[in-house]
Fold these 2 entries.
Entry 1:
Amino acid sequence: MTSAPTVDGRSARAQRTRDSVVNAVLELANSGQVRPTAREIAERAGISVRSVYVHFDDLDDLFRAAAARHFEQMSTLLQPVDAGLPLEQRITAAADQRVAIHENFGAVRRAAEQWAPLSPALADVLRTGREVSRQDIERLFGAVLTGRADHDIALGALTLLLGANAWDSLREQGLSMDAASEIIVHTMTRLLEQT
């Protein structure tokens, strides 16, 4: 009868430790450390390196847990844009959504891209994210492109425009968020207005 609280206490401590390790990974990535070591992760979490591996099978297991937490944090930004909006509003809403995602979560994505060649879990998360993004763009703008000879090219261009690499490139040019967003909206509008 006295063992239940002990087990519950251990489970709670183990979950707190797992959470602190996952949070440490995301905090390090957000601070610009795209390839933190197990030692850096442990130091940020306030535990020993050995404890990292007690709670996670390997770094891939840890990265899978961090990716799941990351998507929880992004959930409010991942609500689908209404495909029934007028085209101009749909373009602006889609651009605003992607800009918010890239600005707020770009550091974690860049860290995941650095680790992906060594992490099947992260490679899969990134691949799935790109596919979901492309499907969402087709959901939003596919009807506008129906019947166009350049359907696939235009869809690819929209995917590129709303993607992380285009956003990073615009921001690296020193453009403000507003100026970079204006370029994306303007280019999408021109692309979708073509007959």
Entry 2:
Amino acid sequence: MGKKDMAEIRVFVSPELRQKFKGKCVTEGKTMSDVIAAFMEQYIKDESKA
């Protein structure tokens, strides 16, 4: 998917949380965007099962 096919979401978290999250993503070789998008997809799937 290209950038023009994407939508931006702004999220505000503490600098400490952001840094820890970014560090974990880097360690796992993933982008923060990919991890958050996967979380959102799973969250929607889980909600539809309830």
